[in-house]
Amino acid sequence: MKASRRNFLHSMGVGVAGLGVTHESAATAAFPPKKSKPAGDDQILFVGDNIAIADTQYGKVRGFILRGIHQFLGIPYGADTSGNNRFMPPQKPTAWTDVRPTLWWGNSAPQIMEKRYANVYASFVDHWNYDDVSEDCLKINVWTPALDSQKRPVVVWLHGGGFTNGNGIEQDGYHGENLARLGNVVFCSLNHRLGPLGYTHLKAAGGHEASGNVGNLDMIAALEWVKNNIANFGGDPNNVTIIGQSGGGAKVTTLMNMPSAKGLFHKAVALSGSSLAGTNKEYAEKLGLKVMEEAGLKPGEVDKLQQIPWRQYIDIANRAAEKMADEARRLNMPRGGYSPVADGVSMDGGAFFSDPNHFSADIPMIICSTFHEQSPSRTDASLESISLAEVKEKIKPRFGEKSGEVVEAYAKNFPKARPIEIWALIVSNRKNAIATANAKAAQQKAPVYLAWFGWQPPLFDGRMRAFHCDDICFWFYNTDLMLTHTGGGKRPRALSEKMAASFVNFMKTGTPNGGGLPTWKPYTSQNGETMVLDDAPVLVNDPDREARKALV
Q1: pLDDT of 3 over the 50 cut
Q2: Sorting pLDDT into bands at 50, 70 and 90, what band is 546?
Q3: Backbone angles phi, psi at 275, to 5 degrees
Q4: Averaged over 150-161, what is the pLDDT?
Q5: Mean pLDDT (the chain, rounded)
Q6: In angstroms, rounded to a whole number, what is the distance separating the alpha carbons of residues 470 and 453?
Q7: Backbone CA torsion sign across 24, 25, 30, 31
Q8: What's the rounded Cα separation, in Å, for the pair 103 and 358?
Q9: Which helix (H) or strand (E) holds 277?
Q10: Which CA distances in Å does 484 have to 176, 193, 323?
């Protein structure tokens, strides 16, 4: 199926004339997209005893040079988190005297790996990359154009997977080589503790008061490593941007509300995910006690919990969470389980972004979501012919008696959308993204830029749509690397050049303008300025506002 080159808003029947549109800017990007020179038969990989050696505060590391970009993979930023370090804030790694080879990824954080590749569609599309799994997982990767004193902007990637799964190189689109070259920036990605090992709050059971947030404290330790070491890799520790997608987007907003993160980053980007509060402290403490009970231990015996093999511990913790499901529902927590805790000490206890004098108020931010975070027909072609009445029934488990009203509101807002597209838009609605933008903008100190990604790949007969994760490789200039998300070629590359250049400008200046997109005005709750990212990008005022009113 040949993909439409029209803007998605036009194809859905949303007129842009009355939406405060800013059309394509005639200005060229602040810098032309840089491409590696054709290699021919020339050598492009360099590795050896005296190649790509950099200093860190713990010892020297040796990487390699690929297509002109220095790469260092799996540098320790923290100690092994097993044994007595489990449930504890991260410790510093042991220094080394020899030059440490950093040529391969660090271990993924402990997580359930069984049947990780069971879904062949997901494995094909997302092209999962997983290596060994262990508690010795506090590692950081660095891509840099040169080991010099140029002080390039630094970006730190926080992977998705909720707070439960994933790693820093989970998808090919996470690689930092192309963005480092395009924007002359330093790109970092990292692994940190996840799930029950990163977020079991054991204070009430006699554990450390910050045990419910050690996974986030790992990220802060990685940012401290960046502050202390990135100058040795050609980066500027005073110009750091954090970016995450899905669960990584929530990592961004939680870090923005942790006191110990102050001063460690200066700009933030949340893609397809955010949170406006930590996990309820009361629930988290009760869950910690339930974990002890499920393990057959008494409060005060956390040291014994530290010695249980990690895989066995995850099973224990998950059983405890299942038994706490009713408590989660009582507290109006749709998920429960393990994620950062609003303990009021290591993480703010109240609503995020509510204080205009908070350090987060000074941080410029980009928030982006996709049109079809969920595409119900992605692996079921029969749903392409679903009726509007059937859509109303399909969404009843989520919207109850309001399902009809919601469907009608979206159908009116998007009059040319087919029922399957209406369904996808509803279950992928922007309610959370808008709430985060409103909260951040209300601090009134730093701009917020809001985007809505609508580009649809010509794959799986067009049923993928603008899906969850698809925009990552566009921001990182990796559309020709993440082929299973884009198909490759000039069409996705043209949009990626604008998005990546705009992202680099945001890293450098705090504004994305000048990268080839239309003039991007900061978001306001009054106008809802939204950059629609498609083959023909356009800035519009809150294009789905009327539809969203039905979601309240």
Answers
A1: no
A2: very high
A3: -140, 150
A4: 97
A5: 92
A6: 9
A7: positive
A8: 40
A9: none
A10: 18, 28, 39
Tell how strand 139-144 and strand 186-190 pair up: antiparallel
Distance of CA 463 to the CA centre of its chain: 23
Token reading at 312 = 């066995």
* Reduced 3-state DSSP string for 179-244: HHHHHCCEEEEECCCCHHHHHCCCHHHCCCCCHHHHHHHHHHHHHHHHHHHHHHHCEEEEEEEEEE
- d(CA 310, CA 399) in angstroms, rounded, equals 38
Task: Report residue 387 as tokens.
Answer: 């009726």
> Which of 223, 58, 236, 227 shows the shortest CA–CA distance to 148?
236
Distance CA 430, CA 437 (A): 10
Of the candidates 82, 47, 155, 30, the one whose C-alpha atom is nearest the C-alpha of residue 517 is 30
Give the mean model confidence (pLDDT) for residues 429-449.
Answer: 96
Q: Is the pTM of this model over 0.90?
A: yes
Burial of 533 (0-12, 13-18, 19+ CB in 10 A): buried
Distance CA 188, CA 77 (A): 12
> Within 10 Å of residue 172's Cβ, how many Cβ atoms?
17
State how far the Cα of 128 lies from the Cα of 107, in Å rounded to an integer.
14
